[in-house]
Amino acid sequence: GNSVTQMEGPVTLSEEAFLTINCTYTATGYPSLFWYVQYPGEGLQLLLKATKADDKGSNKGFEATYRKETTSFHLEKGSVQVSDSAVYFCALRDNTGNQFYFGTGTSLTVIP
Amino acid sequence: NAGVTQTPKFQVLKTGQSMTLQCAQDMNHEYMSWYRQDPGMGLRLIHYSVGAGITDQGEVPNGYNVSRSTTEDFPLRLLSAAPSQTSVYFCASSRDSRDTQYFGPGTRLTVL
Question: Is some CB atom of chain A closer than 8 A to the CB atom of B33?
């Protein structure tokens, strides 16, 4: 079946530190991959996506590359800010395009 | 545009009671979905709809009913609430299943 595994949190970083949040997936065929961000008390917002192998999604300084050979979609940012504090979810959309599977979420806190 | 709206924001039920969580969108989106968010489990898909009159089950459909009589509305019904249904519920919509999903602010449900 389909599933997403992402690194356990919480993660605490100092401002301007490098961020990596690991995400690996299991899926049949060729899923699309996503990173969503959830700020306190709000719904999820799409951060970036990649729809085929070797695609790189990027937005607001965040990047993730769809690696089919390692079934991974790790999220990275070179220099985090306090405003990046949130919960980050990795997700996949299955072959049919109709069903989404989310990871458990990783809480990030950035301290000044 | 109001985007995706959900009501109520908070709800407390007793075991065995029924209720309907409302979800509406004003973006003329065809695809709508319901998720529940539980600690340590991420988001799990309950039901989804690819258009008016068409619904299908997601990963965790038991105990929930949906219908889609209009493009705008996608209510989620709990016929006989159980404590295991205590969760935060999110509704989402997108132009189609392959487009970006927009999430509502969530409904926090407690079943005693």
Answer: yes
How many other C-beta atoms can be found within 10 angstroms of the C-beta atom of residue B109? 20
Answer whether A99 sits within 8 Å of B44, measured CB to CB.
no
Longest dimension (CA), chain A: 44
- Tokens describing residue B68: 């889609």
The answer to whether the beta carbons of residues B93 and B32 sit under 8 Å apart is yes
List CB contacts (< 8 A) between A93 and chain B: 97-98
Contacts of A103 in chain B (CB under 8 A): 42
3-state secondary structure of A27: coil
Residue A97 pLDDT greater than 80, yes or no: no
pLDDT in tens, A52-95: 999 999 999 999 999 999 999 999 999 999 999 999 999 999 88
The verdict on B56 touching A (C-beta cutoff 8 Å) is yes
pLDDT of residue A29: 83
> Would you call B50 and A42 a contact, using CB atoms and an 8 Å cutoff?
no
Q: To 10 degrees, the CA torsion angle through A103, A104, A107, A108?
A: -20
Give the model's pLDDT for residue B1: 65
pLDDT tens digits along B30-74: 999 999 999 888 899 999 999 999 999 999 999 999 999 999 999
